[in-house]
Specification:
This protein has 362 residues and is of the alpha+beta class. The chain contains 13 helices and eleven strands. Bound molecules: 3,4-dihydroxyphenylalanine.
């Protein structure tokens, strides 16, 4: 073997490598376990001593030259690869960042969460009911029989019955006009005593500055053997103080009438107008915020609760209305317009909003 010639042949091979991985393949083919050079060195063992004396330094020199050539070539190829990456993967650090669009919490969700959280602290748990409701739960069970004038007051959306396959006089379903039917559904299923609030969507055919066909109510119910109107009063005062973030608050319980409560009271909160904005807690005006009363025995009986043994209070209030009062939105209709400008202005950042879901699932 003419070592100089071989030398050049191998060095050319190394020069041809286009990448570090190419080079590694060549290295293995020469210097790896079964590589050409490794075999040469191995062949020394079979040689006569004389020949070995001549060949051994030549082979070892060849190996050394190749190892150095590999090292050099490897460094060069690595640098080339890095340069090529730097050319292709450059980063324009002066470019404007991409806008991060993060959602906001809708005021209705936020206020629902605030209300749920306050009543949770007062020992109420959350209950839910269907939005499509039978007229029995929505009216009859709440002591509003079919000919009762209160049915007209509700501007009810009736769901057209599917007459295919129906026999006889099946009572129609409605979009629930209030959250009160959840009272009956809950007591029927869980009995008494109980203490719940039921937030949710309700529907009435009505549309102006303060009315939309879909809006939100929250119902409260506390039933026990020894519950009175004074408990109702205390709960509502505590709620209003916490919700409006005031140390003390004036509420006015005004005698009223609801078929499902006896006695009934509408509750007003002291307030005043400064220019166009409403200040809650101070002044000489009163603003109605909810309806309430002692649950009518007929309602308890409809829910299969013994009205001789149990009694309690109930109340219902508009969530959207409470949001308007606290956060100063003038027009209820804009709540449901999905206008991004409105949502950005009145929406809430998401950090504090895990509460309701913890409570609903907990
Ligand atoms: N359901 C009534 C409404 O939608 C509100 C209401 C009044 C609920 C008195 C009650 C109550 O539980 O006791 O107008």
């Amino acid at each position: 073997m003419e070592i100089e010639v071989e030398n050049i042949k191998f060095l050319d091979l190394i020069k041809e490598a286009k990448s570090v991985s190419d080079l590694e393949e060549i290295r293995v083919s020469l210097l790896g376990k079964k590589g050409e050079i490794t075999n040469l060195l191995r062949s020394l063992g079979q040689m006569e001593a004389e020949e070995r004396q001549i060949k051994s330094p030549q082979y070892n020199k060849l190996k050394q030259i190749l190892e150095e050539a590999f090292k050099e070539s490897r460094e060069m190829l690595l640098n080339k690869e890095i340069e090529a990456r730097m050319d292709s993967e450059w980063l324009d650090i002066s470019q404007d960042p991409r806008e991060i669009s993060s959602g906001l919490i809708h005021p209705v969700s936020r206020v629902t969460e605030e209300i749920v959280s306050i009543f949770s602290d007062l020992g109420f748990s959350v209950a839910e009911g269907p939005q499509i409701e039978s007229d029995w739960y929505n009216f009859d069970s709440l002591n509003i029989p079919p000919d009762h004038p209160a049915r007209q007051e509700f501007d009810t959306f009736y769901i057209k019955p599917d007459d295919k396959g129906l026999k006889g006089n099946i009572s129609p379903n409605v979009l629930r006009t209030h959250t009160s039917p959840v009272q009956v559904r809950f007591m029927e299923k869980h009995g008494a005593p109980c203490r719940i609030i039921a937030p949710g969507r309700v529907y009435r055919s009505d549309y102006d500055l303060t009315h939309t066909p879909m809006f939100h109510q929250i119902e409260g119910l506390a039933i026990g053997e020894d519950i009175s109107m004074s408990n109702l009063k205390w709960v509502l005062i505590e709620f209003c103080k916490a919700y409006f973030e005031l140390d003390s608050i004036d509420l006015r319980f005004r005698a009223s009438h609801f078929p499902f409560t006896e006695p009934s009271a509408e509750v007003d909160i002291r307030c005043s107008w400064v220019g166009n904005s409403l200040v809650v807690g101070k002044g000489n005006d009163w603003m109605e915020i909810l309806g309430s009363g002692m649950v009518h025995p007929n309602v308890l009986e409809a829910a299969k609760v013994d009205s001789k043994k149990f009694q309690g209070f109930a109340f219902g209030m508009g969530i959207d209305r409470l949001a308007m009062l606290k956060y100063g939105m003038p027009d209820l209709r804009s709540f449901f317009d999905n206008d991004m400008r409105w949502l950005k202005h009145y929406g809430f950042a998401a950090e504090r909003s895990s509460n309701l879901y913890d409570k609903l699932s907990g």
